[in-house]
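To: structure desk
From: M.T.
Subject: fold request, one chain
Message: Could you run this one when you get a chance? Sequence is below, nothing fancy, just the single chain.
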Amino acid sequence: MSKALDYGGGVDLWNVPETQYWRFAKLFHDMEIVARIAIFFTKASVVLLYYRIFIPDSSRRTGVWWAIWFVFWWNLLYTVALVLAVTTNCVRKGAKLAAKGQECVKQPVVVLGATVINVVSDLMILIIPIVAIWGLQMGKKKKLRVLAVFAVGLMAVLASVARLGYLIPNASRPNQSVIVMVLTMLK
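Reply: Done. Structure tokens follow.
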């Protein structure tokens, strides 16, 4: 992130020298890949923790079991698809476009799609413990107290929604060096 600041991140695009902007664009490209992989491992660890907590060894395949594995595979496949799309989109035409001063990937479309999928994924991860806890054999007050602990996960959903709310009106604006830095901080 500090390297992005060195290359013009957070500075108005028209005040960034062209050579620095292309370094910034390449750095953002790399950060996007690393961040998506890190997000996958974070979400996978939460979902696998749910598996350990809510699925006893002797249980059959319940709705919670299916939900956990659906979310796990959803995130894994999405991560692979996004990383492949971002890394291979510029393979053939990248040098020609870079020579013309153009980008190969429509960053606003990629970032908007990734943000929408992250919001949906965060909601699914939030719903799993709610459903699992509501099915437990314990008093209603106790269930609500346990749900309050898992409700901290609502912060992740709110952060994703805030990011999406900022992204939608700003995605196609020309000042991407500032917008990208704000989105990176909202991750």
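Reply (cont.): Residues 18-54 form the longest helix (37 residues). Let me know if you need anything else for the meeting.
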